[in-house]
Amino acid sequence: MTHVLSSSQRQEHPSGALRSSSVPHTATIFQDAFWAPRLHTLRERTLPAIYQQMRQDGHFTAFRESWHAGMRRIPYVFWESDISKWIEAASYSLATHPNPDLAAQVDEAIAFLLTLQQPDGYLNLWFTQVEPEQRWINLRDYHELYCAGHLIEAAVAHFQATGKRILLDAVCRYADLINATFGPEEGQRHGYSGHEEIELALMKLFHATGEERYLRLSHYFIEERGRRPLYFDLETQARGENPADYEMGTYEYNQSHRPVREQREIVGHAVRAMYLFSAVADLARELQDEGFQETCERIWRHLCAKRLYITGGLGASKGNEGFTADYDLPNTSAYAETCAAIGLVMWSQRLLQLDADHRYADVMEQALYNGVLSGISLDGTSFFYENPLESNGTHHRQPWFTCACCPPNIARLLLSLGSYLYTVTETDILVHLYAQCTTTITLGGRQITMHQHTAYPWDGTVRLEIESDEPVALGIHLRIPGWCQQARLTLADEEIPYETRKGYACVRRTWRPGESLTLHLEMPGEPVYPHPAIRENAGMMALRSGPFIYCLESADNPIPFHQISVPNGATFEKHFLPTLLNGVAVLRSTVQVLETEDWSETLYRNRPPLAQPYTLTAIPYYAWDQRTPGEMRVWLRTSEGETSNHFRL
Amino acid sequence: MTHVLSSSQRQEHPSGALRSSSVPHTATIFQDAFWAPRLHTLRERTLPAIYQQMRQDGHFTAFRESWHAGMRRIPYVFWESDISKWIEAASYSLATHPNPDLAAQVDEAIAFLLTLQQPDGYLNLWFTQVEPEQRWINLRDYHELYCAGHLIEAAVAHFQATGKRILLDAVCRYADLINATFGPEEGQRHGYSGHEEIELALMKLFHATGEERYLRLSHYFIEERGRRPLYFDLETQARGENPADYEMGTYEYNQSHRPVREQREIVGHAVRAMYLFSAVADLARELQDEGFQETCERIWRHLCAKRLYITGGLGASKGNEGFTADYDLPNTSAYAETCAAIGLVMWSQRLLQLDADHRYADVMEQALYNGVLSGISLDGTSFFYENPLESNGTHHRQPWFTCACCPPNIARLLLSLGSYLYTVTETDILVHLYAQCTTTITLGGRQITMHQHTAYPWDGTVRLEIESDEPVALGIHLRIPGWCQQARLTLADEEIPYETRKGYACVRRTWRPGESLTLHLEMPGEPVYPHPAIRENAGMMALRSGPFIYCLESADNPIPFHQISVPNGATFEKHFLPTLLNGVAVLRSTVQVLETEDWSETLYRNRPPLAQPYTLTAIPYYAWDQRTPGEMRVWLRTSEGETSNHFRL
Predict the structure, then answer these.
(1) Among B390, B564, B591, B604, which would you mutate to test the A interface (most chain A Cβ atoms within 10 Å of its Cβ)?
(2) What stretch of H or E contains A575?
(3) Which residues neighbour A193 within 8 Å (Cβ) at sequence distance 6 or greater?
(4) Which of A128, A246, B367, B380 could, after both became Cys, cross-link B41 (CB 3.0–4.6 A)?
């Protein structure tokens, strides 16, 4: 008995949006060949590696041994955020995989942080040890509230993983001090953080504690941001400096150039923008604030329509670690910070909960499988800060960075990946990401265990099974990814018709024990074409299969990549190679390569160059730079487009 | 009676080379619509403009008014080279177009320079006024001998133009001091100039005075260059500095990394290289030195085969104002200094005299009509230092530069253009460049007047006429440019067969009064393709007609240039527009332009972009940036090559 709904009215918000809620990452156990080994590596290699790097750097000791007044602030001014993010990541791991050694390290790190806490609750490494007189003096530049935010996120994760309140209580005291210090009242500072982060952290703290003052403080920070007179102007003048001398030129850099509700475009530092709008999405949901929701959607659409790399990377420029102009997406110099792609996953997931629109999940998946995952090596111990789409072979992952935001950030995202697969309503389960796994979800008071059986992301067949001894009435919404050009649903080997609401096929029925619903997503190797306004990519194409964007590496293709051209009608064969790069599906295609042999000493001539056929091998972008260094490129020249059947005269 | 020779044995050098000699620039009177008005502008606008800029800058006064010990040296350390080059350019003008006001300015400038001369003959602005103690202390960096070179060139030009010896005598005293100071003997400095120039200047001084010591000194400078131990190492150590700290990293920068005869590739600062090898070519000729000639030819071939822009621009990088790697020819960031293209004209003309090979004249013409001429505005008063092949509309000519080498350099080249059209042997005239003009040449004691009747460079028909009352026996060698795919020769409207020696058709006969020989060069608009190893240009083409490389400008084509693609089989119609940009032939072609309309909010998609036809208009590259600023580009995408008939399977 199958009932297919084109839209499930019951879950719809008055706006027509389908609201749903995320589930804890602990609900899901990965059993797949893709994520499960990666998560194992994250637990076994990455967490220890980051911890060691922090110890070597002196994160816990240098302030005593070598820090002194007058030393340069960056990156030390936000050093403890590395510790906080590591505690958060480690807590996610401890929640699913108890580990006494790791637990002891976490306790030790927390004990260290607590030694920094001042009698009034203030808790910051730099501004207690080096420049206590600078407390709250320069919110624009010094990451003080940003560090507080990561501390809060760590505390919430640690509390949820272990039940221990030690750090949570400490950050509540700190948050209460912040709440007393900042706000609309006379005598309070009408300020907000130059680097957003605390806003979304306060939302987590609100949810963890139920204390509405944290919600209100987050709301205050967001509403105050960009109001006239601009706090950063006043603050700068109070320091006796000229706001016009601001190094970054414009407050677009930190999204405080105008009130958040009035912002129309994604601008400035990319990570800051992602964290800001994640909090705005949280507030939209919590406060049922349509204005915030519209602001988020508008800016997210602008990002995706004009300023997003095909890898889900974002923030094209190193200069501001952020956005430049529409369609300005250079490849070699792409900044595309790993943290920004992580932030996009976070923001998109929040939007997805506001409305189950496949575009949010598509972008979340696009960033996750490409621009995020490229940020960490297969062995889990080296990292990209920048994720270019083209390289001459000189860009490599590093074990650590002076500004080491990315390594613990990727660890905390991936170690909480279990919370990104599903969302739930009172009655329904929405499936956003596919992977072989078992998830136990509480839904309208019932505990439901769902299995995904699939070789995703290498194959698009996903069999969903509700584990139960008796029939279960349940709506299941399955995301049909935007990249998928052909999708089918079968129930007991029988094809069932479906309609989609915003890219989700909903099957609402009473599931009998042993029954399973199978989604068949075609995911061949295929070309993707860029908007013609992207200057560097005009006349080019990229290769995709399922969620993966592909790239060429010299290790597989020892030819100059700029001499390659993909002809009209090229086909792309997909082969899974279990021993290559921990197992990847490669794409192979016969392309043309310009010949240099018949040029002799000629540099320019009136005959076009000759070309020879060549069978190229492309690998998923995330897996590049794990072998002999050489060229890498995502975008390949093609003669498609101009000479296609679509040409209109 | 026509006699066609495939090679004219009589003029051949033992090596098989056809040697010939240049003629004075005064021999030619331009009567054409292209050069004659430009030269008029150079005389009437450019020379006064440069003079005014130098006065405003304080070239003649600042040393008294504001120069002081400890001030920064660059560009002041070589300031008087601007004056010298201006005197040289003005002298070329005075030689053909007497002008009392200009003559007075020149006399005044010379008088100024003479006030600087020291009792021992030393003559330098900076090192007499600011750092006399630094004389000869840092030849590597301080342009002392470079300035001496330009002073010598000015003196020779002034003497030849006016017969006045005042500056010539002064520079001979200075050259004698240099000759006493530098040389192989004990007690002499075994050094040479960091910026070459004096070497070719000394050759001019030798020819002007007949004094062999100047030839020998030039020869010494060239032979000593790059010999171990390296002078610049010793000199640096003598200053108490470490040669390893050299800012430019390698002595390739100034071509002193190894002995000149052992150099294999064109490297380092482009202008320095051009001036060096111009002198080496002079010495090869004067000393009948095959080694020098081979060195020149080898390095010239390397330049033309691997490191030359299609515009004749050279020196891709701003970092060293010079060469980088083979085929590294980026477009937007192309440095391609105007002075380097000027130097290439000078060097190529010297090689052409060593052997009448059309390739030298082709490159000379290519640089002259493109990368040199782009360096000066149509109104003669603003200049490009850098000549990129692509611009977003922000690169513009300037009236002057802090380092103002280019403006007077282009003036001195163009005002002596008359010396570049012909060379002669005892019996023959070689015609290298075509233009409507009258030239009077002394040949084996006979004075011969030759007329060219042509609309070149816009049309390729050139009628040559020997003006004479009686028959004249004479060989005429006509260059068949490498860009020309179809050339014919007619005598009295009758086609005559010809063979070529290295691209020159020789007609040796007795010319009767009124007879004329007509060369018909086809010069349609046509595509040119780049060597596939040029990374940025793979899959692209440029447009050419005759000596001109074309470019697109937004002023004619208000569309985004990267969205243009030239289809297979495109044709290029040529139209002369007499009112556009002082009269240019434009090329028009129907191309395809990628459409953005049907993309909506999509940034990437699985359908290729659509394209629409568009008729583009291209103008000669030299004429760009004279109208409303906008995009400019030389290289256009094309689907030719890969999909051409030449494709081999």
Answers:
(1) B604
(2) strand A573-577
(3) A139, A143, A144, A145, A146, A149, A199, A221
(4) B380
Rounded to the nearest 5 degrees, what angle is found at the Cα of A272, between the Cα atoms of A266 and A274?
A: 60
Q: Is B565 on the interface with A (CB under 8 A)?
A: yes
pLDDT of the residue at B82: 97
Are A476 and A504 in contact by the 8 Å Cβ rule? The answer is no
Say whether residue A241 is in contact with chain B using an 8 A CB cutoff.
Answer: no
| Known catalytic membership, residue A241 | no
Calculate the CA B197 to chain-centre distance: 14
CA A299 to chain B, closest CA, distance in angstroms equals: 12
| pLDDT over 60 (residue A246) | yes
Does the predicted model carry a pTM greater than 0.90?
yes
Lowest-pLDDT range of A630-644, B122-136, B210-224, B633-647: B633-647
* Chain A residues within 8 A of B611 when measuring between CB atoms: 641-642, 644, 646-648
B198-209 and B270-286 are packed helices; what angle lies between their axes, rounded to 10 degrees?
30
Closest residue by Cα to residue B644 from A609, A570, A565: A609
Cβ atoms of residues B477 and B506 within 8 Å: yes
Fold of A422-521: Immunoglobulin-like (2.60.40)
In chain A, the percentage of residues whose pLDDT exceeds 70 is 96
User: b or e along B427-443 (b: 16 or more beta carbons within 10 Å of the residue's beta carbon)?
Assistant: ebbbbbbbbbbbbebeb
What is the C-alpha separation between B523 and B550, in angstroms, rounded?
Answer: 13
Half-sphere exposure of B100 (CA within 13 A, CB side): 0
Residues of A in Cβ contact (< 8 Å) with B310: 603-604
Mean pLDDT of A168-189: 98
What is the DSSP secondary-structure string of B261-275? GG--S--SBHHHHHH
pLDDT number for residue B492:
86
* Residue A634 structure tokens: 């995502």
d(CA A393, CA A378): 18
Nearest-CA residue of chain B relative to A484?
Answer: B606
Contact (Cβ atoms closer than 8 angstroms) between residue A564 and residue A539: no
Task: Reduce the secondary structure of A592-636 to three states and give it as a string.
Answer: EEECCHHHCCCCEECCCCCEEEEEEEEEEHHHCCCCCCCCEECCE
Task: Measure CB to CB from residue A301 to each of B538, B567, B601 and give the nearest one.
Answer: B601
Give me the pLDDT at residue B640, please. 58
Question: Amino acid identity, residue A289?
Answer: D
- Does A596 reach chain B within 8 Å, measured CB to CB? yes
Average pLDDT score over residue span B576-592: 97
| Confidence check: pLDDT of A648 > 80 | no
Alpha carbon distance B383, B345 (integer Å): 18
Specify the 3-state DSSP secondary structure of A98.
coil
Residue type present at position A207: H
User: Which residues from chain A sit within 8 angstroms of residue B365, using beta carbons?
Assistant: none
User: Do strands A636-638 and A564-566 pair parallel, antiparallel, or not at all (unpaired)?
Assistant: parallel
Domain boundaries, chain A: 58-247, 422-521, 525-638
Residues in chain B: 649
Residues in chain A: 649
Torsion, CA B262, CA B267, CA B270, CA B273, rounded to 10: -10
Which residue(s) pair with B494 in the sheet?
B491
Burial classification of residue B64, based on how many CB atoms lie within 10 Å of its CB (0-12 exposed, 13-18 middle, 19 or more buried) = exposed
Q: Could you report the per-residue pLDDT of A598-612, keeping only the tens digit for each?
A: 998 899 999 999 999
Work out the end-to-end distance of chain B between its first and last CA atoms, rounded to an integer number of angstroms: 52
Dist. CA A454–CA A196, nearest whole Å: 38
Report the C-alpha gap between A104 and A100 in whole angstroms.
6
| Residue spans of beta strands (DSSP E) within A340-425 | 390-391, 422-424
Q: Measured between alpha carbons, how far apart are the two ends of chain A, in Å? A: 52
| Chain B residue closest in CA terms to A310 | B604
- Which of B485, B538, B646 faces A610 most closely, judged by CB atoms? B646
- Our answer to whether residue B321 is catalytic in this structure is yes
